[in-house]
Amino acid sequence: MTLPIGATAPDFEAETTEGKIKFHDWIGNSWALLFSHPKDFTPVCTTELGALAKLKPEFDKRGVKLMGLSVDPVDRHAKWSEDIMETQGAAPNYPMIGDTDFNVSKLYGMLPASTSGDPLTRTPADNQTVRNVFIIGPDKKIKLVLVYPMTTGRNFQEILRVIDSLQLTAKHRVATPADWSQGDDVIIAGSVSNDEAKTIYPQGWKEPKPYIRIVPQPR
């Protein structure tokens, strides 16, 4: 089972393309995006890794660290990186875990606890459940889980939009409505009483129903 939102992201030690890391220490006081791939040298994932490399400045701006994962070893990640640069115009500029013992994939519910053997003998179909996105906050809690099929490339603009929403909620105790984007009106969170809301929003709010309190996006 995939880890639920609100659970503490399991800590782990792993070999990556940027050396050995301890996950919680690596996150520090930042946000983190952990995203997994079923196998190196797969077509959809090749496009994703290149797209994310190009978007890294946007994640940096938001204080979000990026970490990739595949069950293949780190030396294969380095060779795959050359293909990604050649075909996508950008190579991974963030660490990639070589999860050869399946430890992280098991901890995060992406592979069964019984999984074992040589990762190089496994096919992408064997690892098709290793196609997840986890957004993790500075408190090391899981804020979002997305699971994609192998044939659908991830929409990283949507992931950036979710991060913007999560960070806005963390700072201002507001929620974002359907199809929200930066600059749109937001909703006062249900955890904020009307009395408290009056001190935060002395100008008031729009209230089409008592449970929908709409205000401009806080800055």
UniProtKB/TrEMBL annotation:
UniProt keyword terms in alphabetical order: Antioxidant, Oxidoreductase, Peroxidase, Redox-active center
Gene3D superfamilies, per database record: Antioxidant, Horf6, Chain A, domain2, Glutaredoxin
Pfam families xref list: 1-cysPrx_C (PF10417), AhpC-TSA (PF00578)
Enzyme class: oxidoreductase
Entry keyword annotation includes Oxidoreductase: yes
Top-rank taxon: Bacteria
Similarity section: Belongs to the peroxiredoxin family. Prx6 subfamily. Belongs to the peroxiredoxin family. AhpC/Prx1 subfamily.
Protein name (record): 1-Cys peroxiredoxin
